[in-house]
């Protein structure tokens, strides 16, 4: 039970509050309304839907985001005919929307520590193996991962527009798509209530506190007031606690959250994270990491610039088969730490490509639970996933190979001597 577990526990409680008050649905409808265009512009609409999914995924776990956002996406697609009456243009746009939401959720989750369990496992292992080293904070991770995710998101959007969503499709789709329906759905939600505003305010406060706890050496952030005893998990739990204190003003004595609303808390993921950290510690302390690292000793002969793409390729290949990017990270990161020690390379230069590469599970519906959620809609087939997933995986490896030796060196100070 460390800071990483506290971080994800508080974040999940906040995510449940967002879901309970339909804030995610209001956000999706508003953004879709803005990006709809008049006349309908399919690439712009696709950008709005995917952008919403990516943004929500930045602050919630990927699986929770997929469960919430996929019904929003398929709700938009219900305007179109199904079965034999569906035209080729409509069918392609439906596939583009589902694939876009699916992969945007994965890409968005990479950009923040709380977006996915892999990032938390990675940071937890860094703290466990190198307790004396400077911790990877929410803000330092964001400074590196957000530009990486943004480049991948743009690559995804370009791929979908080229293969499934040409600009000329606007006229065919506008027959079924109308802004009036979106406005009706938004009106059904009614004006934003006090409870929704308070959840959004606490959500915004959490992000600000995460980003300002540790800024730079010259501007240390508010964390210095507590002499290093307050972590990102401290803030997460504090905001979650406030949800149980602030009144909702719906009924007398009712708070924004209570334990009944927390029944859907995914303890399995929290336990999985804890287990991953415990297994990693066991792999290290038992000497198993030394033995296993011998199977990857060929990486020692790989040139420095080729190391990132090699590690990323291995990690992203394993993750397609194991069905859990958390399990892949738990397996591969301790080995990469051992290889970094033997090759005298800064550990983060291998750990980060290995951890982020474990999230490039784009090819198979069984590769991650969120892929399964998208595949279950019936709008996409395995060949669609491979058609977009393979070039997206290549783009992801290229982005990491470019940014890790450049931006990564600056953000994580990997150019400095490391003991």
TrEMBL record:
Q: Where are the transmembrane segments?
A: 44-77, 97-121, 141-165, 198-216, 222-245, 265-283, 303-336, 348-368, 388-412
Can you tell which superkingdom this protein's organism belongs to?
A: Eukaryota
GO cellular component, as recorded: plasma membrane
Query: Sorted alphabetically, which keywords does the UniProt record give?
Result: Membrane, Transmembrane, Transmembrane helix
Q: Membrane topology per the record?
A: Multi-pass membrane protein
Keyword Magnesium part of the UniProt annotation? no
Record's subcellular location: Membrane
One GO molecular-function entry: malate transmembrane transporter activity
Keyword set includes Ribonucleoprotein: no
UniProt main location, coarse: membrane
Its name, as the record gives it, is Tonoplast dicarboxylate transporter-like
Species for this entry: Prunus yedoensis var. nudiflora
Q: What is the lineage of its organism?
A: Eukaryota, Viridiplantae, Streptophyta, Embryophyta, Tracheophyta
């Amino acid at each position: 039970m460390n800071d990483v577990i506290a971080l994800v526990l508080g974040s999940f409680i906040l995510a449940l509050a967002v879901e309970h008050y339909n804030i995610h649905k209001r956000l999706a409808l508003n953004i879709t309304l803005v990006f709809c265009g008049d006349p309908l512009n399919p690439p712009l609409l696709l950008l709005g839907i995917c952008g919403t999914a990516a943004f929500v995924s930045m602050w919630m776990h990927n699986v929770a985001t997929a469960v919430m956002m996929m019904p929003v996406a398929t709700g938009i697609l219900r305007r179109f005919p199904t079965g034999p009456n569906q035209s080729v243009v409509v069918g392609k746009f439906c596939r583009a929307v589902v694939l876009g939401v699916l992969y945007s959720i994965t890409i968005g989750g990479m950009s923040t520590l709380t977006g996915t369990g892999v990032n938390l496992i990675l940071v937890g292992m860094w703290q466990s193996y190198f307790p004396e080293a400077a911790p990877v904070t929410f803000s330092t991770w964001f400074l590196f991962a957000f530009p990486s995710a943004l480049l991948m998101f743009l690559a995804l959007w370009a791929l979908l527009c080229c293969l499934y969503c040409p600009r000329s499709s606007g006229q065919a789709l506008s027959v079924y798509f109308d802004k009036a329906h979106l406005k009706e759905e938004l009106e059904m939600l009614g004006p934003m209530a006090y409870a929704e505003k308070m959840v959004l305010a606490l959500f915004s406060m959490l992000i600000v506190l995460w980003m300002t706890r540790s800024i730079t050496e010259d501007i240390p952030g508010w964390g210095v007031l507590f002499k290093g005893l307050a972590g990102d998990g401290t803030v997460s739990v504090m905001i979650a606690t406030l949800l149980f204190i602030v009144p909702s003003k719906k009924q007398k004595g009712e708070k924004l959250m209570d334990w009944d609303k927390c029944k859907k808390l995914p303890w399995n993921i929290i336990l999985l994270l804890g287990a991953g950290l415990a297994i990693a510690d066991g792999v290290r302390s038992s000497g198993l990491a030394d033995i296993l690292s011998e199977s990857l000793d060929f990486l020692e002969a790989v040139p420095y610039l080729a190391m990132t793409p090699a590690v990323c390729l291995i990690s992203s290949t394993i993750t397609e088969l194991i069905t859990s990017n958390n399990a892949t990270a738990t397996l591969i990161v301790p080995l990469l730490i051992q290889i970094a020690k033997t090759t005298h390379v800064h550990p983060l230069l291998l750990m980060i490509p290995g951890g982020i590469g474990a999230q490039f599970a784009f090819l198979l519906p069984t590769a991650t639970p969120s892929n399964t959620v998208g595949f279950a809609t019936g709008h996409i087939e395995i060949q669609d996933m491979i058609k977009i997933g393979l070039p997206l995986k290549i783009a992801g490896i290229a982005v990491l190979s470019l940014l890790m030796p450049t931006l990564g060196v600056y953000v994580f100070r990997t150019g400095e001597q490391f003991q």
